[in-house]
Specification:
With about 190 residues, the protein is an alpha/beta fold. The chain is about 40% helix and about 20% strand. The chain has one domain: RbsD-like fold (3-Layer(aba) Sandwich), CATH 3.40.1650.10. The protein has six helices and six strands. The protein has a six-stranded mixed sheet, with helices on both faces. Helix 4 (about 115-125) links the parallel strand 3 and strand 4 (about 130-135). Helix 3 runs parallel beside helix 4. The longest helix is centred in the N-terminal third of the chain and has 17 residues, at about 1-20. The relative contact order is 0.22.
Length: about 190
């Protein structure tokens, strides 16, 4: 009887700590709490500024472990996620984005990856002509460096076409380099 009571208490405690509490993870482990990706973006965007990054990736993109890097999963098509992120950044009053795509994407053929042309076209349609092509490893290095001091938000998608990562390097929307140079000249 006493053992049954102890087992019942243990089972209740186990249920209490695993079953009824929402599953979350610490931001310090680089994985965001389990909330919708759009809600997480809405929550973070006002906090992000120049030198922060938002990255939309394919499924094989690695889970980076840098302290400033947070990864969330969006279980929606890549182009839908890219479009929503682009719209949110463009609507933000405080930032704009320098947009980069993997240079390798330009060289993948339909024979290598069926459907790549349609995907590239969709990416161009969303990001516009100002998106720059940069080698993937260079962009990863820039993210690693940025993540040492600044926040990076990575949004992984179920996309399984290689080199379909889009990088948004955020910058200040209401202050530009010319005004900064003028201010620097006055301060010196």
């Amino acid at each position: 009887m006493r053992i049954n009571r102890l087992l019942a208490i243990a089972a209740f405690c186990l249920w209490l700590f695993t079953g009824c509490c929402p599953k979350t993870s610490s931001l310090s482990d680089g994985v965001a709490p389990e909330v919708g990706w759009e809600e997480r973006l809405e929550e973070m965007l006002p906090l992000l500024g120049h030198r922060n990054w938002i990255v939309i990736t394919d499924m094989a993109y690695p889970l980076q472990s840098g302290q400033g890097i947070t990864t969330i999963y969006a279980d929606q098509p890549y182009l839908e996620v890219l479009k929503r992120v682009n719209e949110k950044v463009k609507a933000a009053p405080h930032v704009f984005a320098h947009v980069y795509n993997d240079k390798e994407l330009e060289y993948i053929t339909e024979e290598m990856v069926p459907g790549i042309g349609e995907l590239r076209s969709g990416m161009r349609s969303i990001c516009g002509p100002d998106a720059k092509s940069v080698m993937h490893e260079e962009l990863i290095s820039r993210l690693d460096e940025a993540g040492k001091l600044f926040s990076v938000l990575i949004i992984k998608t179920p996309q399984t076409i290689p080199y379909t990562t889009t990088f948004f390097e955020l910058d200040c929307a209401y202050w530009d380099s010319a005004r900064q140079a003028a201010l620097d000249a006055l301060v010196k």
